[in-house]
## 1
Amino acid sequence: MKAGIPELPHISHQRSYRSSLLTMFFVLLFLVWAIHMVKPLFDPDFYWHLKTGCWIWDHRALPMIDPFSIPPQPEDPHRARFMLTSYWLFQLMLCAFYKIAGFGGILVFRFILATIIIAVFYRFSVEKKLFTALVAGIGITQLLEANFPERPQFISFICCALLLSLIFTHLAERRRGLLSLLVPLCLTMLLWANTHGGFILGDILLLCILLAEAFKFIHPKLEPVSGREYLNLAVSICSAMLISILNPNHIYSFEMIRSYAEASSIIHTPMLETSNLYEYYKEVGGTGPIIAVCTYLFTLIIFFNSRGRTNITWIGLLLLLGYMGLEHIRYYTFFLIAAILFSIRHFDTTVIRKVSMSVIIVFLITVVMLSLSKTPQNLKRISQYGWIPTAYFPVKVCDYLIDHGIEGNVFTTVNWGGYVLWRVAPQRKIFIDGRLLDLARTWEYFNMDNNWKKVFDKYDIRVVILPTYDAPNKLSEFTVKVEMDPEWQLVDRNNNGSLFVRKQLLSQDILGVP
């Protein structure tokens, strides 16, 4: 509108109405996300992260050797040390919130982290319009549904979103100042490197961005930045990559790339977190595959109708992260983050039609409804059992173990290891948990069906905690094997878990005999 010409009343009324509608939509989305965040602590790895954070707090040091597992220590010291120390800052945050307000503090921590990543997306969007809210809503709902904010990996998601937001805002606004990018980028990588090993991916993304922006100098149509601007970008990125080495593992952190590949080849066991997208959803089932495929197609449509479809830096990042997300379920969220940022910044809203908008709205409603479908059940579980889901973890069995003072090395499943570790370690040592520190022991765990007695003798296992059922009304085969063995005595059982103790350790007190 030209200066000096008053705005017509009906136009002013329309803008006010749209602004109010958009505000109500944002409030509704925040309410949906808030409701979704109120769920029990399902993640088994959360418990060993919390336990490690409390250990660091109590000892005022990082664990150089594992204080919770049965000796001997793993043969690969670098891999074990990386797993023990690379999450230290996040683990201390968990410990702090837990010490302040128990599991209620962890819920607050959830909301804080979720709010931060939402704020990054909101700040990056140029136009605060309905389409922006719809796209962000689809992505963020998936992100919160598929991931636990109380897990260090969520910091990787925040730092990835912040890293891309900082760099592409700097490039879009053609800022000439060095410090405006250098300082926040270095702080982001420093935080990332001390909370989660995923910072290695951050270094890879930084390097890809630097090379892609250099490639633009080949031809003016690629719209390269000026030489001064590229120099500032290069200095900022190189400084951020160097400062990421300031973590407990220093340069040895990058050995984890090789170590991780070796671990997958040694164990020869398909883990859900290391599966590709098809294998993961084939195992888990549900509507996940459809939502993921729709997200890829949705991103592709937005890309070809965007102002940034000729930006080779964005093309490279979306292709790289898109491929990684297909091949490895753990990286799908990183692709989702990049897709959200690209869409809310570059999509040309002038080409969108009513039919397209309707499809997007239906997609968002579908994602939200699927996300909230478990909410009533989650709220019921919290009201009945508290934040720890007793249907998922051996809560009562661990209570029995502690109340009766049963000592000795403990064997349990890898999915229960983190929770059992939190409850009974370090007074009792654990055979295995989600950290999988010792590759040799991990191989033994996944291949012990016929020689489990030898493994138990080798590690002096005195206590065994196993699931009672593999499926509804179907006793666990391995649990039945232990129960039938004359060396072991069943001392406690419920619908969730069974507790066995070597008979030579039995006493009347352990058996509950007065």
## 2
Amino acid sequence: MKKYNNIARQICLLLSSLLCSIVVAQDIVVRRDAEGNTFVNATRYDDEVRIDGNLDEAIYTQIAPLSNFIQQIPNAGSPASEKTEAWIYFDDDNLYVAARIYESVPESDWIANEMRRDTIQLRTNDSFSVLLDTYLDRRNGSAFLVTPIGGFSDFAITNEGDGGRGVNFDWNVVWDSRVGRFDGGWTVEMEIPFRSLRYEPGVEQVWGLQLRRIIRRFNEASYLTEVPIAAARGNSLVSGMWRISEAGTLENLQVPARNFNLEVKPYGLGNVTTNRESTPRINNEAKGEAGVDVKFGITNNLTADFTYNTDFAQVEVDERQVNLTRFNQFFPEKREFFLEGRGNFDFTQARGLEVPTMFFSRRIGLEQGQIVPIEVGARLTGKIGNYEIGALTINTDADDFATLESTGFSVLRVKRDIFSRSTVGVMLTDRSESLVGQGSSQLYAVDGAFDFLEDFSLDTYLAKTDSPGLNGDNQSYMTNLAYDSDLYGLNSGYLVVENNFNPEIGFKRRNNFKQFSGGARYSPRPTSIDWIRRFNLEANTQSYWSATTDELESRQHSLSFATEFETSDIFTISSSDEFEMLTRPFRIATGVTLRPGKYDFTSYQASYNFGAQRQVSGVLSLRIGDFWSGTNTSIGFGSGRIELSPQLSVEPSYSINKVELPEGDFRTELSSFRVTYTLSPRMYLGGLIQYDSNANSFSTNFRFRWEWAPGSEFFVVYSDDRNTDPFGHPSGLELRNRGFAIKINKLFQI
């Protein structure tokens, strides 16, 4: 018996030794130092990998998973509510990220109602994401997100998100992902080719790494590393990922030596166009076009793009807006070529200040409401050491337009990283044919964005333009200081835009003004009320003076109080006291003109935001009170979404303004109805119907998109616009313009 006991003891010692060796191997996968920094070991795996979501490769038993995710919101620092296991490994060509997502509830309780690639709705679903800081600069990164039903998105983050302005959800690269199920949750596998990423030269690499799990039914975001709740910027579940300085470190990664990296993407297009408002009229004019985009990796971290005969037929039409002010409206860029490298050209902005946009790409190829063909263009983007570079040159071809000229546009943007989270930079722009006189027009600007401690920021810039006939008073400058913690917020800024400041490849909403902006916020999280996540009390003031006469032109004092519920619903009430001085008549609506003079008016608003994870979501709003010389009652329902199934959704919105003035009464109505049917994450059919009473317009836009191979797409697009004026066109909806297009492109990687 004693002999058998000794044998048993030896077996136990052997098993214990094996177990200890396994534990030691597991400890090597992830370690944390005394300061709380997280280090992850990247593991080489040379066997075949099938991206199918099944997690059945040997690697998943050979290395220990990353786990013990930490909540950022709602309970910062607490363990995640549900278990997550993740793996990071690589081979000669790809980086692989996989996860096993445990769920304690059945799939019917998961929040997963969207599959379309890159749509904003994906961020309101359950999801798993990875962020890669490939330069290890702790401020820029590339992120990849996948939902339980296979929806996926990729996006680029610059300067730690820059308050949301530095997050480019239109950044697209070639990668693959698949999801699966297991008894107790879902799984995901991602394959990210090294050639789709930019990084420093060298085979041995150290990158920044962050992993995120979002559980929408709890409105919870948890991370591999501890992220402060202030990074949530309120109650955002996604913005914590932007705090790249809090990410972990991925070690022992080996990337392939740089090879010839060339991508060629030709396209073919056929369209039929009708325009009854052009001179001469166009009726069912058929055309065919072809063009090509080329991307060349000069180095691992510097890329050149070339485009010839660029076409944007697949771009969705703009969503209409109601403008009851006397200032310009801003419509965002939607064209893929300009969206892709947007972060390299970003210029300092500041919350609460109407800073001009120094480079606004919609100035290129869109002129006087007409589309001007882009003949040829080139772009250089990337990072060299601490310097981030963006250079762009594009020529438009206006030979077919009697009142327009072919124009060359050039932009140079250079930013340098300084300290731990700050940048300084310069920007130069040139337009070969000025819009205000004979000759060219330039802009010169320097800026700085300084983030220090954890919650303080200082933003500043100085810009000057040089346009024909506009001499002197051609500068703009700004300084803004902000403190933005989770509990308190303070900001104060001053901006000047002089009368002759003319950024001809930029955008400015108003001209010739000085602005002061200040605000204070108090946002407690009551622990004694379990159904309320946060209160938000905020006061703001803005004043505008003429930059030449120093006379007060506009002023607004506002006070708001919001209750943010654990369901992610938000109820807000606010009041606003405004002053406007008109120096010339202002035509606010057809047949209604306001006389010069001073106007004081006070209004009250209330809104209820139904959480985006709900089956029916949107923002219901009401405004009552004074408006210029009379009153305005406004009711609206915006950002609406009704989930009919994970594949089918509709997005209604509607707003009405009933304005009563001594000068005349009028009403505006704006409505839209979007429907989307998603056949797969890479194939969907969408429609957008809009009615705008102010423009007497009823328009439709239908788009079919199919990514038939990675990076290769097929589009079918139909759009029209009709006149709804019952007096000018009593016969009904008379056609203004109509277009039908079929486009296909193919990505070749060499």
## 3
Amino acid sequence: MTDTAASTSGPAEGSAAAHGADPAAGLSTDLTGIPASIPAADPLAPYDAVLLLSYGGPRRPEDVLPFMRNATAGRGVPDSRLLEVSGHYQGFGGASPINARNAELRDALQARLAERGSRLPIVVGNRNWHPFVSEALRELADAGARHILALPTAAFGSYSGCRQYREDLAGAVALLAAGADGSTGDGFEADAVARVGGDGGGPVDLTVDKTRPYYNTPGLLEANVDAIVRAYGELAEQDVAAADVRLVLVTHSIPLGMEAGSAPGPGSDDAPSGPDAPSVPDIGGSSASDAGAPRGYSAGHPGRRSAARSPAQPTSRLAEHLTGRREPGVAADLSTEVSYVAQHEALAAVLVPEVARRLGLERVEADLVYCSRSGPPQARWLEPDVNDHLEALAAGRLTDGRPTARPAGVVVAPFGFISDHMEVVFDLDTEAAQTARDLGVPYARAATAGTHPAFVDSLVDILIERAAAARGEDVHPGSTTGVGPFHTVCPPTCCRPGNRHPGHHLAHGADGEHAGGHQPAMSRP
């Protein structure tokens, strides 16, 4: 059993042809060179194309409100609230920076893959705006691709950063299998709701596999350490001593239920399935933290592991029994598969000592906090919020009331995001930066991994690792943190969505989700 997106029948739904200017401009690539067959020497064989799988965002002012309606469809969010959040885009020309960042990452991956001997094309496909996953897959299919490898822009494992992308792929593959991926003919807003676009085409069967989460790769660690050290240098230019700076590690908040379902628990191979299990498409064939308190870190501080059990689909043990082998990338010992929060804690536990070493310090005080929390006030999400944390630090305490020294400055590092999309440039560069100014606390924001050469190299390694698994080779994923996720197929009880409630959007933006995923209902990609 693989994480292949199986072809199933889907409703006839349509395109962005009526959208005017191409909403996916700048995100396509030249596909004229897809060969009829991929040479075995290509490190990504047996795949014949790569899909950079992301969240998406508006490209122009008139896209913003339809995008917000689309991203929150069926969740009871009123237009008044959508208009409030949509206004955040106006300071950025009505466009999300995620589009340009994804194009840059695609180009960097394409160049590095070429240097390492791969000829495969890469295109961008999005969950919530053009080009949608179905549009990207149709573009690849029309160029001759049939076996596609998807790389999400979410480094950490959770429902919206991992399993939900598999659902997106399954839905898009089903549309293409039915030849139902063309325009609705009812305008670009209707196409956006249907997550389709373009002219569509005849039925085609595709096989699509997904890479594993990659927060624990050497390149992501190196890129973040380099960026944090540079940010400390910015404060040094303001005569703020490194020893007096507090490091604030930021990631996207998610609902507590999603956190609880983001890792398999003990005995997960025997987990039940049934009517209460969340509905997840079977894409297994090849046919068509404690809320309110920051987690603190200093050099050598270990991160704790957390895991939870939830209902499941057919188990990995059953798949292993039927096929004679475990699903690609799923570790035999699932105790190494840890939750969304524990993944961040594990990365922080190796990142903070390395930052201290690079700065020549014995100790760096650091905390794990969150941004982009959304949804109704009664919904519980991971806390503390970065702004609340900054206010507490300025008052000489943590958000749980424990005393601490007021820092001479703060470095805010969005290590839970791989690129500068709206959660970073608005939530941190605008809101959190203003909070720090109001408090009189010198503030420097570290860069995201972006197209850092080491990070791009690690992404290429992840693609090559997955291709090796697809060829039936024995794969042993490495980890800078010593823990997973290592899976390319979600183990039965991990990456669950948590409890759904009307009006709650359970996706997050660690991608760009991220986390990414990637977004909650009112956050911005």
## 4
Amino acid sequence: MEATRLASVGHTYLSDGQPDKAVEVYRRALELVPEFGQVWVNLAAALNTLGKHTEAADAARQATTCETDSAEAFLNLGAAYGGQGRHDKEIEFYKKALAVKPDFARAHFNLALAFADKGLVADAIQAAKKALDSDGAWAQAHYLLGYCFGVKQMVDSEMKEYRAALELDPSYLDAHRALGAALFSQGKYDESAAAYRRALELSGGQAVDLANLAASLGARGELREAVQHLEKAFETDPDCYEALLNLAALCIARGDLKRAREYAGRAVAAQPERASGYLAQAEALMREKDYDGATAGFKRAVELAPKDLKGHFGLAATLNEAGRPREAIDAAQAGLQIDPQNAEMHYQLGLALNSLKRYKEALEVLAKTVELDRDHAEAHYHRGMAFEARDEPERAIECYTRVIELRPEHFGAHYALGFLYGKIGNNDRALVETRRSVELKPDYHKAHFNLGLAYENLGKIEEAVASYRETVKLKTDYLKAYVKLGALYAKLGENRKSSVAYKKAIELKPDQAQLYGKLAQVLKALGKADEAKAAYETYQKLKG
């Protein structure tokens, strides 16, 4: 039969990557047999390949009139709608295809792509897994699943899927690139460099791969080779977006924020429709504490990629750091609408609530953070701060202790523990923690002051005096330390030093009656009756 022969020829053309010739042959077959359902399906596939999605939709609908339960017809109709950007209709017809043929791997895969395009990442993951259940040896499905895990910041799962894709297809260029990016994000620069080198080999020296490799080399300190690769990238493509972004990232890592802004700005100028340039620019501005500029950059990134959590996270973090917690709450909640199980977005929301002294709500949100990421040290730390603010020292101590288990050199946790142990009367532990806080931050005056308190509470007066003296060396106007020195010097019988300390305290706080009373006592002990009398009279006057 001639129509059947033509259908076979058309299929050969389509398989050989000649969809235009396939369309011509399929149309000739349909002139002979207008009700040839499979040919309508194949015609729709060829037209979709050519990007003629309106014609493809017409062909696919014609196929469904010939074969009402054709999964392939529904698949191609869904693909045609997808090509037109009508993702709801696209999803509808992929689901119809799966209702007819539940183990249809291509329909599951296309459905996963459609969900991903709509930002429905959790649904995309489930659909991609079903595609792999139907066809486990499908490199593209593993790659898509890896991409979705990456969006959800599940990096270990992301890398596992990229590696699975590469086991099936070692020449899969995009999988090498994506694996390199994931490894880079985890600080595994040797492995990311290896992935990018392989991508460079496969691409024949494309600028993007030169730029990516340069970023890994730069991150592991091989700056000369990194610069050489970037120069090659710019020779290949003077406006190479990835090269500009990676230069910006490299400069941020090295603290050269001015140049980072320059490169990120060039990336934005080269491709103003891409969010990643604005993200890099905003990160540099944030680190420079230009919070207005950073906020504008992150907002623009969110406009361009509203489903990308990086923009929402950067915006929330910037607003928190800028002391704008109400706006940070809005940004964090927008991120949580995209991914309700994202630990970092819960953390930013908890920070903002803590800043507003909404401690009960903050504790609930931060509890969710550590439920999702039990090793999130900063979430435990800020839970401790909330419990401390609610005057629940024992629970705060539990949180700060967990922080130190995760990050033994966390100054804030040691500092807080020293204060809280002193508050509940555990002076030995207070001394241990305050000593450690001084070791970690020897230039912080309050750490030395708290160490003085710990020594004083243990009756170690000379050690306490030494700590208070160190406090006023670091901050010459710290009133509390002078008051403590005045009292302890008097206790040690060193009344001259005591009087000097009290006089300095009075310079800082001349309207505090008690200071004059203490000074009067010390001056009297020194035999300075007139000065003692004057100090006492001032005490009486201020006391009223």
